[in-house]
Amino acid sequence: MSFAEKALKDVTFFPFWLDSPDAPEVQDQLTGRTDADLLIVGGGFTGLWGAIQAKEQNPGRDVVLIEADKIAFGASGRPGAVVSTSLMHGLHNAVRVFPKDLAALEQLGHDNIQGFRKTLDDHDIDAHQTWGGELTVAIGDERVGDIEAEYKLHQDHGYDAEFLDRDAVRQHVNSPLFSAGLWNKSLSGTVHPARLAWGLRKAALALGVRIYEHTPLENIERVDGALNVRTPYGLIRTPKILLCTNAFAAGHKNIKKRVVGIRDRIIMTQPLSDDQVESIGWKNRQGVYDTRTQLNYMRMTKDNRILFGGRLTYYYDGTSNTNPAGERVVDPYLRLAGAFNKTFPQLEDISFSHAWSGPIALTTRMAVHFQNYWDGDVVWAGGYSGFGVSTSRFGARIGLAKLDRLDLPELKLDFATTMPNWIPPEPFRWIGSKITLYALDTADEKGGWRHAWIKFVHALGFPL
Questions:
Q1: For the chain, percent of residues with pLDDT exceeding 70
Q2: What distance in Å separates the CA atoms of residue 440 and residue 454, rounded to the nearest whole number?
Q3: Confidence (pTM)
Q4: In this predicted structure, what is the pLDDT of residue 217?
Q5: Chain Cα centroid distance, residue 190
Q6: pLDDT single digits (tens) 342-372
């Protein structure tokens, strides 16, 4: 039996974060009719941040939030949960998509994390937050140049960052694969995403937000000037709606024209022993991601487990299912477990407690964007392809500002006034995704046509 088969033998196919006795009691579903000054659709991070900020901005505003399932049960209860000042999926991607607005976006990103931390402090939210920074690592000598270039980029933009050579990076996280690293110490770290969502939920309720779970949106129509939102057993009449449905793209059929819902897989170890922790190091507990074509990312939890993620996949019309049957079997996680073993061979006796996948809203921008419907009275905010746990606060703030027609300088920047490119419909999405994901899986080992295909996908606007 291989390491992967043995380590996954008794795994639970459910997100570790959500498998917790700390989960709060579910709020009642909506029955009957009600009015609201603002309706928020979606009980993940964007919706929760939106509800809190809406009440903080105007305590008298009547805010209703509806969630199709349970709070954080979708994408927000499933990520690696590395938080960062980056609003645009990393500094390198920000340079690619919005170079002329980079200075403003950097300042907005730092302000966003400061606001993020203030909310946790103000509402006494224990999300197991750590602030050890983020660590980008090179796999193989040929990738050291990528780290050097990224280090220079961080230096140029005033980050508190440190270049780590082979010996130095392994003093931080001891893996034989790591040949160099960039340690960004600026206001970044990790959180327990479910505890964060549950803490935000508690804060929203304390501020007077009305939350209804198991209340999916079924239809929106304008009646006598107002927006009527139908749910299975109720109706909400409101002048404004913030759609926080991200990869699920609920709220309007046109959202999916610019969003692809792909899935990212994660495995979580059992808690490490003291000797195992010593063999790894990782004293600063940075969130870590590598430079491979099909990258892996990793982090530690408060109880000394290692989360290890990567291995993207796509299901036909992939935005609709929270927990597909194809993700609740061992086979999809075998290669991921094998990659873990190569990364940390000293943990040969480890086993995995949980394995799961979560949806990501992929766009050609690979960063948050906004779509307007019903003459701007409905705004969709989403498209987080990375750092969504922290960027969602910013996305909610901008979405609310657009709904309220505020005259903010940031609303004039390109990120707020433009949208990512259109993406072809099915079956072309499915065909293209399968070719692309296969190329990503095998490019570093086999090369050939795979690199040409990845360059083609880059040219289309997806910086994979």
A1: 98
A2: 8
A3: 0.95
A4: 98
A5: 12
A6: 999 999 999 999 999 999 998 999 899 999 9
Q: What is the pLDDT of residues 225-240, one digit of tens each?
A: 999 999 999 999 999 9
Token output for 87: 């609003």
Q: Both ends of the chain: CA-CA distance in Å?
A: 34
Superfamily of domain 32-82+193-258+365-417, CATH level 4: FAD/NAD(P)-binding domain (3.50.50.60)
65: Cβ contacts below 8 Å, ≥ 6 apart: 39, 40, 41, 42, 43, 47, 48, 51, 204, 209, 210, 211, 212
> What is the DSSP pairing of strand 296-300 with strand 161-164?
unpaired
Task: State the pLDDT confidence band at 435, using cuts at 50, 70 and 90.
Answer: confident
List the domain boundaries for the chain. Answer: 32-82+193-258+365-417, 428-460
